[in-house]
Design a protein that fits this description.
The protein is built from three helices and no strands. It starts with a helix and ends with a helix.
Length: about 70
Amino acid sequence: RLEVATDLSARGIQTGEHYPIAVSRQPAARAFTRSTPVAERAADEVLSLPMDPLMTLDEVEQVVAAVRSLL
């Protein structure tokens, strides 16, 4: 994820980590939860891409092209 985010940033495309820490890994929740492997994997892998109703079609296509070039 870091490599993709870095590459997209170099192209002027901001990204984010939607859920950077799974609830089961947060100190305040440890006593109330068990291991959640799917959520933990998602927290490690999911990358949020730009999404805004005001994005132009050209901006959307720029994001899509950049992501496709990394696949």
